[in-house]
Amino acid sequence: MGYVRLVDVTKKFGEVTAVNKLNLELNEGECFSMLGPSGCGKTTTLRMVAGFEDLDDGEIYVGDKIMSSKAKGYYLPPEKRNFGMVFQAFAIWPHMSVFENVAFPLRLKRLSSQEIEKRTKEALVHTNLWDDAKKSPVDLSGGGKQRVALARAMAINPGVLLLDEPLSSLDPHLREEMRFEIKDLQKAYGFTVIYVTHDQAEAMALSDRILVMKLGIVQQIDTPLKVYNEPANRFVFSFIGLSNFIQAHVTERGIKVGESGDITFKYLPDVSLGGQRDLVLASRPSEINFVSQGGVPGHVKRKAFLGEIVDYAIDVSGTEVRVQKGRRAAGLNPGDDCQLDFLHPHWYAEND
Ligand SMILES: Nc1ncnc2c1ncn2[C@@H]1O[C@H](COP(=O)(O)OP(=O)(O)O)[C@@H](O)[C@H]1O
Ligand SMILES: [Mg+2]
Question: Thinking of the domain 4-237, which architecture would CATH place it in?
Fold first, then answer.
């Protein structure tokens, strides 16, 4: 049984169902991400786990303890849940030193001063802040401020660490660096982490598993590799990584794309999509090859040199298809005709 369990968790704001029958089991020590576009219900879910928001339906457990249960009319207040939380905005106290920012929640818990010293120092050392302990957090960089928030969340020895887009106000370079810091801390301490982000690269780099959400509804829960390689539906395909979608009509002999004749196609759709003749072919720009015969005909519209890769826009019967090739395999030019071979196509129903 999972360490953190959400059972049919539902939250409505008026007409909007922010979270719709969410079921989830997290293992102890797991780094779990919730990924999805803005407004899909990530923050609401995290706030319900933390206890800042009551549920309209369902239950939340940690270990064998109930946190919230609508049916049982039970609700444990946030301060009794012992969760660490870090938000997007730097929630630091400017009038306290870095040390006090981290120590303060421990003082509220009335721990002994020795214990407070010990835990605060440990958290500050782990987040590379020990040398800044006496400074005001106001004098730290954005990354430094967010480290303070992280150290404070860690110092309480939380059962679960909840992170809501903690890196999104940092610049891209620092963001990438801190991803790995968070991952290292998580491993060192063995925390169970729920990490909310709309940044797929962040989720992929950090997580044991990812939940992809759309309009309050779970689309897929899987390892990063599976979410990328075996997207459950068209939405997940398009949300993770670069994607092309091409309308195709499947015939006895192959596929038709736009005005093309039948193209013999190596990878016809799975039989489970059987009855459907009009399908969408989904593919990654890096998984399309230029071939000299037998491919889907196209016409080079644009070519952009991006350094390591060359990015092509190919017109395929009116649909623009992106193809990315290593810079050394980039012989075609705008105006050229070409043929495309799709290496690992996915097939989805048109309205999937
Ligand atoms: N306090 C609130 N009052 C009304 N609507 C809200 C409130 N909080 C969130 N919502 C709505 O719930 C949906 C999910 O929001 P949120 O959980 O913040 O999404 P995310 O964190 O994924 O961007 C959105 O449609 C949002 O407008
Ligand atoms: Mg949010």
Answer: 3-Layer(aba) Sandwich (3.40)
Indicate if ligand 1 lies below 6 Å from the C-beta of 43.
yes
Of 15, 22, 44, the one to substitute when testing ligand 1's pocket (max ligand atoms within 8 A of C-beta) is 44
Q: What share of the chain is helix, strand, coil (3-state, %, to 5)?
A: 30, 35, 35
- Round to whole Å and give the CA distance between 119 and 107: 11
CB 210 within 8 A of CB 226: no
- Nearest C-alpha to atom 25 of ligand 1 is from which residue? 39
Atom of ligand 1 at shortest distance to CA of 36?
22
What ligand has the least distance to the C-alpha of 164? 2
Q: Is the CB of 254 under 6 A from ligand 1?
A: no
Per-domain boundaries in the chain: 4-237, 243-349
* Residue 224, amino acid: P
Nearest atom (ligand 1) to Cα of 38: 23
For domain 243-349, the CATH architecture is Beta Barrel (2.40)
Dmax (CA) for the chain in angstroms is 79
pLDDT digits (tens, 9 = 90+) for 102-138: 999 899 888 999 999 999 999 999 888 999 999 999 9
The C-alpha atoms of residue 209 and residue 204 are separated, in whole angstroms, by 8
Ligand 1 atom at shortest distance from the alpha carbon of 47: 17
Q: How far apart are CA 58 and CA 38, in angstroms?
A: 23
For the segment 25-50, what is each residue's pLDDT rounded down to a tens digit? Answer: 999 999 999 999 999 999 999 999 99
4-237 and 243-349 agree in CATH topology: no
Which ligand has the minimum distance to the alpha carbon of residue 44? Answer: 1
Q: Which residue shows structure tokens 């800042």?
A: 52
